[in-house]
């Protein structure tokens, strides 16, 4: 005679299914309610988009790691500014490697790998009118209109996935005689709790005019 699943087992499966549905639902809700940086796509080339971005304003910081950088910027938009004003979260968040100065006990300086992270402020803010940070570690900067080459990928943005997609981005640009300028950076669009299969990540680099 076939055995049927026990009541506790059924409850466990049901609870896990409900959690999974809630997880996916929250990911979809977060995507639908977060303001995203506008752009126009000028060209699509072998998985790479050439995009034109308008003038934007960012809150920016450089820190030893991503957790510290994110904490500073989140505190700023969460009311930790001189105006005590909450600022809506927007997407994407940009991350790029950065050399930072670390002062040793003997007062000499050495270079170390850090991270520079930026939050884009909503479109109604200007660099002059945005709430002023309470700490000098966070700056408000204006970015002029620019053209970016962008390659998208999903799942978690591990170092390996980022590196592979950067190589493919550079290969495509080289094949089409497009000249990048500066260093590549990472764009992440989703909250940390978004399911990996719903995540949108991009590697990007500015193109020369």
UniProtKB/TrEMBL annotation:
Pfam families cross-referenced by the UniProt entry: SOUL
InterPro entries named among the record's database cross-references: Reg_factor_effector_dom_sf (IPR011256), SOUL_heme-bd (IPR006917)
Residues in coiled coil: none
Leader sequence segment: none
Record-given protein name: Heme-binding protein
Species of origin: Haladaptatus pallidirubidus
């Amino acid at each position: 005679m076939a055995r049927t699943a026990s009541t506790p087992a059924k409850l466990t499966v049901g609870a896990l299914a409900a959690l999974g549905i809630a997880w996916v639902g929250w990911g979809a809700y977060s995507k639908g309610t977060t303001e995203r940086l506008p752009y126009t796509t000028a060209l699509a080339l072998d998985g790479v988009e050439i995009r034109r971005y308008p003038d934007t304003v960012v809150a920016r910081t450089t820190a030893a790691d991503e957790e510290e950088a994110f904490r500073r910027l989140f505190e700023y938009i969460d009311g930790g500014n001189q105006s005590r004003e909450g600022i809506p979260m927007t997407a994407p968040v940009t991350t790029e490697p950065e050399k930072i100065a670390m002062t040793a006990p003997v007062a000499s300086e050495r270079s170390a790998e850090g991270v520079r992270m930026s939050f884009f402020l909503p479109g109604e803010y200007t660099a002059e009118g945005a709430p002023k940070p309470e700490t000098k570690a966070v700056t408000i900067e204006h970015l002029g209109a620019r053209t970016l080459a962008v390659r998208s990928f999903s799942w978690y943005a591990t170092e390996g996935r980022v590196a592979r997609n950067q190589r493919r981005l550079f290969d495509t640009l080289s094949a089409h005689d497009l000249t990048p300028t500066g260093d590549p950076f990472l764009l992440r669009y989703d909250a940390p709790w978004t399911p990996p299969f719903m995540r949108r990540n991009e590697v990007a680099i500015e193109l020369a005019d």
